[in-house]
């Protein structure tokens, strides 16, 4: 059987699938040609990440599809319920990229509190002529230790983020409508560990208490953070979104940054991907990455082998 990995798959995933008797195709097919390609090449499994969408039209047009796989957590680019109603297996890899995303959250947080996103723009331009001016401009950073991190959504990625925050000596609070409490285990290199229990609180109280806020929620029908929510936050708060575009009102975010209400933002995802708004890309107080939360070699290896394992189990 043939597997189309339209958004790519790790070498380890390819090898595992081939060992299981599958032919893996890594040709990148344009969205509008996906259905034709699947039918013409007798593809039984389509694997995607965030770029390719598998909607009702493709599902209806491709009766030979047996599995739709998402390399990652969120499946908002797949019509999951409709696919299942047609007898198609829908799989994903919810645990494989949690640490990678959590590390990117802290890359943005550390960049923001020490102005790395802006100093890395200006040092190449003015480091040799205005060194002391830049030193003064970037010399009043903030430590994360001892500060309160508010995690909106304490699922797998939220928990991985909490572990890193606890390791840095931060206070962690969370808001989550679906999880009443969670035990977070911080493991050390020598086998020792420390476990603490996080009991989620209201979103409103989290916004009021947190020094920094990070969002770990699926795609929403509306915004979670707008001008109204920004107004309730501490002055100088930092906010990071490595979850999904559209959970923060970006126009309101820019206003909050310009007013100083928000000290900095870290954005890995945007409302208009792959063409984020220019005012975001040019803003000196936003740390930017192009939707790379799960894009580490280690995570992609885990994703590839986990997808392969599930496919082999379902179809062998």
UniProtKB/TrEMBL annotation:
InterPro entries: D-iso_2-hydroxyacid_DH_PdxB, D-isomer_2_OHA_DH_cat_dom, D-isomer_DH_NAD-bd, NAD(P)-bd_dom_sf. Keywords: NAD, Oxidoreductase. Residues 107-293 form the D-isomer specific 2-hydroxyacid dehydrogenase NAD-binding domain. Residues 9-314 form the D-isomer specific 2-hydroxyacid dehydrogenase catalytic domain. Belongs to the D-isomer specific 2-hydroxyacid dehydrogenase family. PANTHER family: D-ISOMER SPECIFIC 2-HYDROXYACID DEHYDROGENASE CATALYTIC DOMAIN-CONTAINING PROTEIN-RELATED, D-ISOMER SPECIFIC 2-HYDROXYACID DEHYDROGENASE FAMILY PROTEIN (AFU_ORTHOLOGUE AFUA_1G13630). This is D-2-hydroxyacid dehydrogenase. It comes from Flavobacterium magnesitis. The lineage of its organism: Bacteria, Pseudomonadati, Bacteroidota, Flavobacteriia, Flavobacteriales.
């Amino acid at each position: 059987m043939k597997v189309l990995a339209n958004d790519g798959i790790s070498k380890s995933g390819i090898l595992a699938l081939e060992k299981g008797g599958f032919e893996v195709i890594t040709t990148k097919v344009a969205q509008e040609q996906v259905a034709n390609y699947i039918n013409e090449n007798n593809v039984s499994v389509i694997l995607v990440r965030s770029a390719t969408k598998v909607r009702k039209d493709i599902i209806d047009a491709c009766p030979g599809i047996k599995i739709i796989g998402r390399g990652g957590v969120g499946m908002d680019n797949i019509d999951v319920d409709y696919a299942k109603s047609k007898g198609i297996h829908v799989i994903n890899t919810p645990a494989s990229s949690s640490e990678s995303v959590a590390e990117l959250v802290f890359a943005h947080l550390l960049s923001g509190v020490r102005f790395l996103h802006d100093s890395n723009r200006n040092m190449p331009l003015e480091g040799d002529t205005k060194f002391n001016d830049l030193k003064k401009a970037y010399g009043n950073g903030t430590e994360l230790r001892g500060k309160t991190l508010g995690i909106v959504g304490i699922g797998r990625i939220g928990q991985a983020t909490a572990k890193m925050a606890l390791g840095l000596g931060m206070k962690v609070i969370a808001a989550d409508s679906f999880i009443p409490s969670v035990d977070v285990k911080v493991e050390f290199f020598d086998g020792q560990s420390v476990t603490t229990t996080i009991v989620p609180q209201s979103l409103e109280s989290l916004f009021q208490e947190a020094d920094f806020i990070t969002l770990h929620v699926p795609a929403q029908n509306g915004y979670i953070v707008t001008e109204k929510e920004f107004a309730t936050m501490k002055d100088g708060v930092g906010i990071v979104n490595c979850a999904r575009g559209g959970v923060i009102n970006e126009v309101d975010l820019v206003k909050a940054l310009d007013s100083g209400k928000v000290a900095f933002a870290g954005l890995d995802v945007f409302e208009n991907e792959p063409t984020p708004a220019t005012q975001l890309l040019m803003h000196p107080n936003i740390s930017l990455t192009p939707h790379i939360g799960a894009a580490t070699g280690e995570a992609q290896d885990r994703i590839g082998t986990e997808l392969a394992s599930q496919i082999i189990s379902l179809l062998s």
